[in-house]
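User: Okay, second chain of the day. Same drill as before: sequence in, structure tokens out.
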Amino acid sequence: MIGHKLLKLWSSGRSRWRLHEGITRCGKACYSSCNPKVCIVGSGPAGFYTAQHIIKARQDVEVDIYERLPVPFGLVRFGVAPDHPEVKNVINTFTQTAKHSRCSFYGNVNVGKDVSIDELQQAYHAVVLSYGAEGNRSIGVPGEGLAGVYSAKDFVGWYNGLPNCRELSPDLSCETAVILGQGNVALDVARILLSPIDSLKKTDITQPALEALAQSQVRRVLIVGRRGPMQIACTIKELREMVNLPGTRPEMVATDFEGVAEALKDVPRPRKRLTELMLKTALEKPGEKEQERRNKASRIWGFRFFRSPIEVLADPNHNKIAGIRLAVNKLEGSGEGAQAVLTGEEEDVPCGLVVSSIGYKSLSIDPSVPFDSRKAIVPNIMGRVQQAAGLYCSGWLKTGPTGVIATTMNNSFDTARSLMEDMDSGTLDLSAAKPGSQSISALLEKRGVKPVTFSDWEKIDNVEMMRGEASGKPREKLLKVEEMLQVART
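Assistant: Same drill. Structure tokens below.
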């Protein structure tokens, strides 16, 4: 009876796959070896959303997620601001996916180094690259290598506990900080630099960052963009948080907003609301209560529009930065497509800290994978990697570093749908059983690599939460990979 059931054909479009072939190979009723196997590289939002959709879409697919670090969740853990705990709630959904019977997590596996993409392709029917954007876009100006210049990715990684950023120890002894870029990450950095220390103490910010910020001399943060108020890249939620940040007051340049009110009638509602809030903050006389709040403020923040960096200025000893030279721009065109054009004017802004928030950048991890180094993405059509059958991509590696977590979710679901379509149409060959993690685990063992399972991660999670509880925080993150592995293996 059992044999008869196992011999049933599972058909899907042109792809017909007989379970009994798996039994013949295994010598026993080994369902698992016969199921379609998909592997995902990267356990951030893109990886988990792709896995989630695949598991829901088909009842037979097994998904393995490989992650370079011993801990999952990527930018949700290391990119989301500590004072935005609600954004991290997606971790609950990702945990459900990771604990699904057809999903396995393998942390501490560096794909491209410990195991190649080619080896993964031999072991799986499909490989999805979702490892995000861990590189920095260079500012491309003289002096950017000076002490006191940081990328936002590294600065955010420092206060969020990314292991390779733990020794950043930025110098916060200056009064003025300049942030290049006006997206949400730029505003996160500004807010963390200016937030009252008591409010940060209740978050999962790392202890070294908390101690450094408690001693910080930074009192003024300028958030610089090459275009105007109508092109700013942040969301209204982030702007509102800046406007209402306790102990701070805004400082804007009124002339930056000339003609903006008149241009508002033709723009979409989200952009209109964002710009109206900016105009109100910059130009309107505040009410009595708000004026009183501003009068008491000891810290200042402000946008500086129509400015592009042209040089980071060094102190007399050429050891660290003393300021930044900005080119003054004007706009040609209007709306989202407006271009910043140099006017020939320049201005110098004295500062002791520059944080470049001009975007993350994906890197190639394996020479066998097509990579567009100019766009810093894997060339793809709807997540299907071009000229590479059975290879897919999702998240920032697919689109470039844009959008919020919801954007990544939709883009990952699209990739998962492409993969499902290819399975159903027979474009993806499922006729041969693939060993999946079985063969990869054997390879890793031979190479001395010991993966971290999801239950190992839960040990790390418990230790972090217990440490956090002791100091009134949601968690105190482990900052060293060695420490994480030690806890995972006890």
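The first strand starts at residue 9 and ends at 12.

User: Thanks, on to the next one.
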